[in-house]
Specification:
The protein is of the alpha/beta class. The chain is built from 11 helices and 6 strands.
């Protein structure tokens, strides 16, 4: 091998090593710094609750029976924008600020780095977890691409005029959150709000308009998944994917919920969805996925709210 061929190969090898080491940096976070971030994230959640509770008080919408901790994120049993039945116990559990601290510790132990890309799917069913996820991600200054839904299950962000995209706008305008969604969907079956009456659909469309966010409007579940992936871009470019709630487009279609536990997933499931959802696409690309669902079991396993 002559000198110039050797030099060219050497330069290309060094360049390849540089790409590998800079594309996926592994950040070692100091434990003290992590705990400080966790405390700040939990305080962000409490401050967000105060903003929303004060907003409800101002418009005589506060209910201390449904929302004993004055969080402002507990909705009603049923409304025109309710998609499915939900459980009040799970919604109340989700309001504990400790979820934000736990998320900070999870991300730090996974060696997230500043500027990493994180994809998020948010459901109106768990507005408290939405706040916790944004509060945790803000602590790491990451690049977030998020899609959220208007529709919500019982006791979630299902009050008319107080859907999640509308609550999110209030929190951003009041400075309680820096991060926010980049697009919204109607939610529900096939991301089309099929469960809605004509009146409910009209209310959802008004909520989209008030959110000031672009609407992803699919023609079918497969189209919803395709359009969500188009919004995110290449899954392999992301550090992780976070799913909140039981959205069909995120977790995939079919008669049975395949992602039947909360927590991290690292491998594609052996049973295919009908069709596979967004989370399946990320897992197939080798991207870790955090599923925030089945909260009672996850809390019992991780002791999240005991701290």
């Amino acid at each position: 091998m002559n000198y110039w061929n050797y030099l060219t190969r050497f330069i290309l090898t060094i360049a390849a090593i540089t790409v590998i080491t800079t594309a996926v940096p592994a950040e070692e976070w100091d434990s003290t710094a992590v705990e400080q971030k966790a405390m700040r994230a939990e305080e962000t959640v409490r401050n967000a609750y105060k903003v929303l509770w004060d907003f409800k008080l101002e418009f005589d919408l506060a209910d201390t029976i449904r929302d004993p901790d004055h969080t402002g994120v507990i909705g009603v049993k049923f409304s025109p924008i309710t998609t499915t039945l939900g459980y009040p116990e799970a919604k109340l559990l989700s309001t504990k600020p400790g979820w934000a601290g736990w998320l900070v510790r999870q991300l730090a132990s996974s060696k997230i780095w500043e500027g990493a890309k994180v994809a998020v799917t948010m459901s109106g069913s768990f507005p408290a977890l939405n706040i916790a996820v944004f509060a945790a991600l803000q602590e790491f200054n990451v690049d977030v691409k998020c899609i959220s839904s208007v529709g919500a299950s019982s006791w979630g962000a299902n009050e008319p005029g107080l859907s999640w995209p509308e609550l999110e706008r209030i929190l951003k305008e009041e400075g309680a959150l820096r991060f926010g969604s980049g697009a919204v969907t109607l939610g529900g079956t096939a991301d089309k709000g099929r469960e809605m009456s004509d009146y409910g659909y009209e209310m959802e469309m008004k909520a989209v308009k008030r959110s000031l966010l672009p609407l992803i409007k699919p023609t079918s579940l497969r189209d919803a998944i395709k359009k969500r992936i188009r919004f995110y871009g290449h899954p392999e470019d992301y550090f992780c994917y976070i799913n909140i709630g039981g959205g069909q487009a995120s977790l995939g279609g079919g008669a049975k919920i395949r992602y039947n536990r909360g927590g991290w997933y690292f491998e594609p499931l052996p049973v295919k969805g009908n069709p596979d959802g967004v989370m399946d696409k990320f897992l197939k690309a080798g991207v870790p996925c955090l599923n925030l669902l089945f909260l009672e079991k996850l809390d019992l396993q991780e002791r999240i709210t005991e701290r």
